[in-house]
Design brief:
Blueprint lengths: L4 E5 L7 H11 L4 E7 L18 E3 L9 E5 L3 H12 L6 E8 L11 H11 L4 E6 L8 H16 L7 E6 L11 E2 L7 E2 L2 E5 L5 E5 L2 E2 L16 H6 L4 E5 L16 E2 L2 E2 L2
Length: 269
Amino acid sequence: MRPLSILISNDDGVFADGIRVLASAAANRGHKVTVVCPDQERSATGHGLTLQSPIRAERADELFAKNVKAWGCNGTPADCIKLALYELLNEKPDLILSGINHGPNLGTDIFCSGTVAAALEGTLEGLPSMAVSIASFQWRDFEFAGDLAMDIAENALTKKWPKNLLLNLNIPPCSEGNMSSLRWTRLSIRHYEEQFSKRTDPRGNTYYWLAGEAVKDLKSAGYGPSDWPSDVAQIDNSGPSLTPIQPDLFWRGEVSALPMIQIKGQLVR
């Protein structure tokens, strides 16, 4: 395919291994790669934007492969994409990639994910966008994930990537030889046990540390074809999970299931 203009961001920061591998995977295929990402870790920032302080960006080309232009930004992942699209790039990219994230972005956790937020910002701008994550915080072999992400993105672009489609790719922490096939998946509904750890500081004051463990629910899944596994189940089966997401959060259930709301005797219609 023709060389693409690709914008890459993440939420793990400019020094993360995952983003360097992804940028190299894209550059090695002859694509024009620009990285604009946080200058430090910004995990779990969701789609937050910086409104009360200035946003700064400094060149960081030396951290990446040859011919990759890079900036480290003091803002959130969503800030980075906005800044890139409206100030740092001369033209809109053909593709936006976010990752490779150090850890999973499965199910309803995507609402908290800075990685997914960066890709979603691209989708909101009408650009083909994909979030890429390794479903483990300990796994550090990102090479296969980078190649798989590029294979998927290039293939989807040649098949006319639908507007408003965000792809969320999660890859299991295992070698390629031990991996099952890539599948389309549904978002699981994520629940956590013991979300906070209550502690006491040296002065006797109570504080809380967010430290919940995800419940391993392999059956829970939301809207989508019933024969698609949940993304959590697919990762548990050692297979890459590719979940189609769109920004539209409108209710997809039956209208008759909505609550009968009555205000001052007037039924909401």
